[in-house]
């Protein structure tokens, strides 16, 4: 698609009072145009009160379901979310020139949801989930590889269950910001925010 055409498809703010509709349309375009449409930066408030960010993958999203990603409860991000559930998600879709920020409240998904998704993962990714004590110090990279190989043998001929510490979070938004990037730096920005349970919107200076 040409840049002008993409911009036209993205520019649907006047049509959508609900930001979830905007996100859904943008995501459909991103799926066609982008190499990594699901990569999003998750920012949390660190245990020291300072911001912290990393990429995670968006695995599912829905109007009521929120934005779901999976991770380890041993990880730094999980510990941070347990202390302060407010997070920010950020997508940058380079080919389409769309940036989306979602601020919201994160909550654990159910064990059932985690099982369902875990069971769709390739076997090696399942074993990696057992091998990694995510975010904990590691003496050397070799130590991780050895643990992975040992577990591979242990699980030979058996199903690999979900580790009890491997779960997901859903982010329920209270604010969305969409930006259409333009070469002239006259980016089009629009903020959707919740006021008394109703979505309001306003354009912002770029
Ligand atoms: C493109 C990309 C996608 C990633 N997806 C995930 C993910 O879905 N879940 C996850 O736990 N880590 C994912 N990671 C690794 C995280 O960025 C991070 O290094 C890890 O989760 C530990 O973060 P923490 O110590 O802040 O908790 C991804 C990394 C990249 C580069």
Please, could you describe this protein's structure?
- The protein is an alpha+beta fold and 206 residues long.
- It folds into 2 domains: 3-119 and 163-204, Electron Transport, Fmn-binding Protein, Chain A (Pnp Oxidase, Chain A, Roll); 120-161, no CATH class.
- It contains 6 helices and 9 strands.
- The protein has helices spanning 3-10, 19-33, 76-83, 111-118, 123-131, 141-154, and strands spanning 39-45, 51-57, 60-62, 66-72, 86-93, 98-108, 166-180, 188-195, 198-204.
- Strands 1, 2, 3, 4, 5, 6, 7, 8 and 9 form a 9-stranded antiparallel beta sheet that branches.
- A hairpin with a 2-residue loop joins β8 and β9 (198-204).
- α5 (123-131) packs across α6.
- The longest helix has 15 residues, at 19-33.
- It is elongated and about 55 Å long.
- The two termini are 25 Å apart.
- 25% of the residues are buried.
- The mean pLDDT is 95.
- Flavin mononucleotide (FMN) binds at residues 39, 54-57, 69-71, 75-77, 134-135.
């Amino acid at each position: 698609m040409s840049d002008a055409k993409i911009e036209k498809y993205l520019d649907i703010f006047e049509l959508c009072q609900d930001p979830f509709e905007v996100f859904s349309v943008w995501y459909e375009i991103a799926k066609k145009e982008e190499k990594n449409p699901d990569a999003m930066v998750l920012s949390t408030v660190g245990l020291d009160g300072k911001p912290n960010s990393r990429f995670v993958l968006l695995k599912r999203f829905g109007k009521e379901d929120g934005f779901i990603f999976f991770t380890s409860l041993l990880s730094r991000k999980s510990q941070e979310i347990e202390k302060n559930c407010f997070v920010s998600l950020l997508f940058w879709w380079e080919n389409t020139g769309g940036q989306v920020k979602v601020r919201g409240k994160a909550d654990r998904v159910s064990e059932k949801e985690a099982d369902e998704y875990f069971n769709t993962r390739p076997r090696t990714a399942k074993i990696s989930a057992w091998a990694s004590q995510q975010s904990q110090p590691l003496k050397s990279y070799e130590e991780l590889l050895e643990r992975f190989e040992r577990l591979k043998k242990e699980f030979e001929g058996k199903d690999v269950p979900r580790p009890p510490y491997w779960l997901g979070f859903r982010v329920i938004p209270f604010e969305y910001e969409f930006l259409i990037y333009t070469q002239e730096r006259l980016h089009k920005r629009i903020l959707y925010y919740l006021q008394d349970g109703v979505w309001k919107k306003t354009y912002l200076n770029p």
